Amino acid sequence: MRMFKKIWRPRRWATGKVKHQPVENGECVSCHNPHQSENKKLLLKPDGKPCFECHEDIQKNLAAGKVKHQPVENGECVSCHSPHQSENKKLLLKPDGKLCFECHEDIQKKIATAKVKHQPAENGECVSCHNPHQSDNKKLLAKSVGKLCFECHEDVQQQIAKAKSVHQPVANGECVSCHDPHATDRAKLVTKPVPALCFECHEDADLRKVERHKTAGDRTACMTCHFAHQSGREHLLKGKETGFFAPGK
Ligand code: HEC
Ligand code: HEC
Ligand code: HEC
Ligand code: HEC
Ligand code: HEC
Ligand code: HEC
Ligand code: HEC
Ligand code: HEC
Ligand code: HEC
Predict the structure, then answer these.
(1) The ligand 5 atom nearest the CA atom of 111
(2) What does 61-126 look like in DSSP terms, one character per residue?
(3) For residue 223, which atom of ligand 7 is closest to its CA?
(4) Which end of the chain has less neighbouring CB within 10 Å, N or C?
(5) Which alpha helices (DSSP H) does 116-195 contain, by range?
(6) For residue 12, what pLDDT is reported?
(7) In what helix (H) or strand (E) does residue 24 lie, and over which residues does it extend?
(8) Taking the alpha carbons of 7, 9, 11, 14 in that order, is the dihedral positive or negative?
(9) Which of 122, 91, 85, 92 is closest to 107 using CA atoms?
(10) Residue 3: its pLDDT value, please?
(11) Quick one: 156 and 67 in the same domain?
(12) Cα(31)–Cα(219) distance, rounded to whole angstroms?
């Protein structure tokens, strides 16, 4: 009898900084059958179902989301949350990025080995860009790509707003057609070096038609004459001072 009391004292199951309210209140039987069950750990219901009993909003949001995170959809709530208590906010088993890296080792490896790392990704702030459960945007993004990037890069947004010419993929918010959101080996997180990056969408044959692109050098050093995002001049052109009138220097 003493043993029984000791084990089932709620405080033993809620020693962490963050305590799950029903556990703290000793309501063990809201999730467990004390005697027997068809489910592992004497749970009343399998998988995510016991959680949805009290977290209807989570269930509703999940059902409504266009893109669902696989472990959440499968009801594997306890692959990320402790049902009882935790040292981390929101009862998470591990803090921030460490949690995600449990299953996304490829991203972890890429960030660890790349020369240039995007600061929020390096800091493990994955949920500043991704929703953990579901989303209406591809790749579980909290917002569509352009809007997401402008959350922290207002300066880029402001420059575009007052420019005379804006590069079409930039205007369309297709930031990840040129930048890797996590990490790369190239400055400014570009996915490929210039001019390969530009040739992704611009055919050399088309570029040759432009008078100013005559020499081979003109068709590799794109950034000598053009800005990547926008310009106060036409055709994304840079000003005199940047060497436009002295190409190849
Ligand atoms: C919110 C639902 C919920 C409440 C309330 C709850 N548990 Fe659990 N418990 C679970 C789930 C889910 C698991 C299975 C975890 C897993 O599979 O990783 C579990 C597992 C366990 C286990 C197996 C060992 C372990 O940690 O995996 C024990 C023992 C246990 N709970 C005891 C208790 C006691 C005692 C209480 C009350 C103080 C309690 N639980 C309250 C959901 C709950
Ligand atoms: C018996 C009701 C009940 C069940 C079952 C239940 N929860 Fe909770 N949960 C609560 C209450 C009450 C709170 C505190 C109020 C709130 O944040 O909604 C809470 C809060 C949480 C929080 C937020 C904690 C924080 O610090 O903000 C998480 C995460 C959570 N529950 C996950 C789960 C998971 C995972 C399951 C299934 C294993 C589960 N809950 C099952 C009642 C329940
Ligand atoms: C892939 C990991 C993962 C899985 C699986 C997962 N969650 Fe979460 N959940 C999170 C993270 C991360 C947060 C905290 C988000 C934040 O800090 O903005 C969270 C937050 C929550 C909260 C707090 C509410 C809020 O909006 O802050 C509840 C409740 C919750 N989850 C319940 C569940 C339930 C129920 C399931 C299973 C159906 C589940 N979670 C599955 C990662 C997960
Ligand atoms: C328990 C394992 C697990 C954990 C933990 C986990 N994921 Fe996932 N995640 C998956 C699986 C499985 C898929 C689907 C297969 C795939 O794309 O790799 C997935 C897919 C994704 C996708 C792509 C979704 C799509 O529609 O293509 C993103 C983004 C993602 N996870 C982000 C996260 C973030 C952020 C975290 C941390 C909060 C996290 N994951 C934690 C298992 C996990
Ligand atoms: C600055 C915003 C941002 C941060 C921070 C971020 N991601 Fe992403 N992530 C994205 C975007 C944008 C995509 C979609 C890329 C695409 O469509 O090409 C993506 C895609 C993914 C995918 C899908 C697979 C893939 O490569 O396309 C996974 C998994 C993922 N991220 C996990 C993570 C994890 C884990 C973290 C934290 C270490 C994290 N992300 C941090 C913006 C971010
Ligand atoms: C949560 C905030 C946040 C979000 C969202 C975010 N960034 Fe960043 N980004 C930063 C910080 C912090 C830095 C480093 C400081 C700086 O250069 O402003 C940075 C730097 C960069 C750099 C320069 C890297 C270098 O090496 O100089 C690029 C390029 C970039 N971000 C692109 C993006 C793109 C594309 C997106 C959208 C997919 C995005 N960012 C979304 C916070 C963010
Ligand atoms: C056509 C390719 C392309 C697209 C699309 C693009 N960028 Fe860039 N971005 C670049 C290049 C190339 C650089 C480096 C420019 C340089 O060094 O002069 C850069 C630089 C940056 C920087 C660093 C700025 C600085 O002054 O150091 C940020 C931040 C950034 N981009 C964010 C974004 C955001 C946000 C979007 C989407 C709205 C976006 N980019 C779309 C190619 C692109
Ligand atoms: C993701 C596709 C994509 C990438 C990558 C890309 N562009 Fe573009 N670019 C476009 C589209 C679409 C247009 C508008 C249609 C057109 O003029 O072909 C455009 C137009 C331009 C224009 C003409 C703008 C005007 O107002 O006349 C210049 C200059 C230009 N791009 C330079 C570059 C440079 C330099 C790079 C490499 C840093 C690059 N582009 C990379 C898609 C791209
Ligand atoms: C020596 C300076 C210079 C270099 C280097 C240069 N451009 Fe240009 N580019 C121009 C000028 C000037 C125009 C405007 C032509 C006009 O007014 O007809 C232009 C126009 C363009 C256009 C618009 C073409 C059209 O039909 O409207 C694109 C796209 C473009 N450049 C892409 C590139 C790419 C990609 C590179 C690198 C591979 C590059 N440029 C290198 C000077 C240059």
Answers:
(1) 38
(2) HHHH-SEE-HHHHTT-GGGTB-SSEESSGGGBSS-HHHHHHTT-HHHHHHHHH-SEE-HHHHTT-G
(3) 18
(4) N
(5) 119-122, 145-152, 154-161, 168-171
(6) 65
(7) helix 21-24
(8) positive
(9) 122
(10) 45
(11) no
(12) 67
127 within ligand 4 shell (Cβ under 6 A): yes
Give the position, in ligand 4's atom list, of the atom nearest the Cα of 127.
35
DSSP 8-state secondary structure symbol assigned to residue 237: B
Residue 128 domain flag: no
Is the bond leading into 195 cis (omega within 30 degrees of zero)? yes
Residues 159 and 108: their CA atoms lie apart, in Å, by 33
**Residues of the domain holding 35:** 1-93
176: left (phi over 0), alpha (psi -120 to 50) or beta: alpha
The Å distance, Cα 128 to ligand 2 centre, comes to: 22
Residue 104 lies in a domain: no
Whether the CB-CB separation of 125 and 96 falls below 8 Å is answered with yes
Token code pair at residue 44? 């009343």
How much is the pLDDT for 9? 55
**pLDDT < 50 stretches in the chain:** 1-7, 241-249
The count of domains in the chain is 2
Taking CA atoms only, the protein residue closest to ligand 6 atom 35 is: 175
**Cβ burial, residue 121 (10 Å; 0-12/13-18/19+):** buried
The pLDDT assigned to 214 comes to 82
Among the candidates 49, 72, 93, a domain finishes at 93
* Nearest-CA residue for atom 21 of ligand 1: 41
pLDDT at site 166 = 96
The answer as to whether 196 is a domain residue is: yes
